[in-house]
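As the next step, I wrote out a protein sequence along with its fold in token form, included below for the reader:
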Amino acid sequence: MSRTSDVTDLSRRTVLALPLGLAAAASGARAAEPRRGGTMVMIVHPEPSTLAHYAVSAGNIPPIATQVYEGLCTYDWDQNPQPNLAKSWEIAPDGKTITFKLQDGVTFHNGKPFTSADVQYSFMEILNKYNPIAPVMLAELVAVDTPDPMTAILRLANPAPYIMKALSGRDLPILCRSVFEGTDVLQNPSANKPIGTGPFKFTSWERGQFVRLDRNEQYWKPGLPYLNRIVARFIPDAATRSAAMEAGEAHFAGYSAVNYADLARMKTNPILDLTTKGYEMTPAQSVLELNGRHPHLQKKDVRQAIAYAIDRKVILKDVMFGYGLPATGPLSRKFKTAGLYTDDVRQYDVPDRLDIANKLLDQAGAPRGADGTRFALHLEVNSFGEQWLRQAEYLKQALAVVGIAVTLRSEDTATWLRRVYTNYDYDLNEPFLSQGVDPVYGLNKQFLTSQIRKGVTFVNDTFYSNPEVDRMLGEGAREPDAEKRAALYKKVQQILAEDSPMIWLIDVQYVSVFNRRLKDHTTGPLGTQQAFERAWMDT
């Protein structure tokens, strides 16, 4: 049975609130009772340009923002929705309405009571208009009804079971209506001084140094959180980030903020440990995006040649140090258990790949010049860590072998994102892209024609437009039958692998490094992109 079927079956009945601590009890007794107090220092890299998580999808924002903002649901290790701001819900038999009963007695950090009006405003006026993934995840949302302050009803044009996978504070956070109403949402001061319902309250942001979050003394979950505060430190230098962990000055570094090259040494440090858990709902791929408006990159032969020229095993070994797997196409292998991933696509890691690449470039009318160069491109270097510079350096070498001269361009995160997603002033770009909890999340925002959205980060910036793919992705989002849905996504993967609007490099495996004194930091499949409400410091 597929994940979609599991969620659909679950949603046919009302889901009632679970007692706090049940998830922890189910996984076995604690080694020690949680201690109250203390400061957790986590490394976030790079420093976010904004904390407006509802409008920007960069992966360095949620580790901070999800301490402040909450969603209607959270998720257990099997990725099933669990109560959070919604204490129960019921999906109608036709799948077109989802009725949420909300938690009583919840207040925002500014003292305003949380009601269904906040849910309605968040979904319809903020997320649906400004959130990069909402046009995909909320494509079927027609309205949010509020029959009373503690009931919110999502009304859908068609069934959309994947919505139940995207109701966390990471994906669809609930914001305070009174903070935003009547203001310019994108210029609202709370963008960098967030106000939510979460276990920690925003206190201060010292640019270039840290963000401080303090315990929410009025948090609605009794007894939580345990920590007094969380400090998110920003350390540009990779060696200094590792040194901070090794010296015990920082306690947690998620999303591979510690370079892969340092992990073997970290394993030998008695105060540290590593985990790859906490990324089950955030599968990601390292990719090479190609600007489809470039004269050379418009040609499929050229795009395929670039895909053949790259040895993914080199990237896995020398950049990722074995953490991950070579990508085969536009879906991560993590969707294999749901029956949605296939490797029955055009294979680019083949023994004669360089011969094929050179032949394709010749066919494309890009002969070698006297110096062996066919043409030149710029590559925008991912700003999220030194491993991405290392990958860019390899890509430059690999493409030089087939006659493509690459110049690397490194800039700060804000400049990089503006150049690529607003100005479209790029040839090649090397982001790592989250694929979320359902193919709708990743495939639709990257490949639907409608997702060519100037100024929106991490959407379709390759200008890929294929009516057949648009149709099948639309059908896949609405198809309730697991086998039919799998068949649609198999065909989509085959077409995309053939067209190669981007080059899929590695199915990324993120790693978290943590101090052994820090307990209960990773309590679900969203890991560091959910609140550290149960984390505590041992002596």
